[in-house]
Design goal:
Length: about 300
Amino acid sequence: MHYVTQHWRVDPFVIVVAVIVVAHEVGLARLRGRSDPARTRRRRLHSLAFYAGLGFLLLAVASPVDYWGGRYFFVHMIEHLLIAFYAPILIVFGAPWLPLAFALPVGARRRIGRFVMLGPWSGGLRRTGRLVTGPWFALISFNAVMVVWHLPGPFDLAQRNEPVHIWLMHGSFVVTGVLFWLQIVPSHPFRTRATPIWQAGAVISTNILMFVLAMSMSILTATSWYAVYAHVPGVTLSPFADQQIGAAILWICGDFWAVPALVVIIKRAIDQEGSLSGVLERLSHRGPAVDPADFRTARSGAPDAH
């Protein structure tokens, strides 16, 4: 039981989360005065998802998960899944962007808006924003971050340096995770630019990368990758066995986010294409099949060759 009850800590990130929650509630209160009750209820429901995402982040960095993650690699992989996948999904679904913007005073919002839209660097800012929130940037950056931080050198550096661990490693997981899921999960006022076919490909390719990473850590190697887990006092589990368990968690738990996401995306694609066969034709880059009735109609309406 002491694994759960001990080693909680007051991380500086707790203060950051508290400030974000207060700002979000201020924004919700200001939006409530200019919205109809139905929209206000939707915002409140979405806010619960947003707060759950922040809760996952706190669980990862302030609970015993973080403490034991410094001693066992497999616990560290649980921490990474919480930070890179589950927290960003809930944050994006929670759509906190407008409430957080309305937390600012009116004057500040207008000054920021004028700077972004009419300032001397407005064109560059908008182009950068479109690039960063674009589908391909999100997919490539998210997968690149996952690979780089699990290489032995960067991983060991992050474990030995707490600011690098929290603000660079975890921060990049959260930021690229949010950008990735913005391409898949509706999050007002952002519009999803990616098609359902692209979304399915992004989820499948990311899951394949997680699978290859897990295989590389377990089946395709015979040694432990990470020097920081070589001689941890009080840990009797061998570093390589620890790494294999962590790889299994990275592999198996990947399906816990990938499969539900694919189900939603396939349903979305069927609604768009009209049928599952239409989706499969799009995937195979073929045009829609010709219905015999449509062919007969076209023949009957064609001019007489004689």
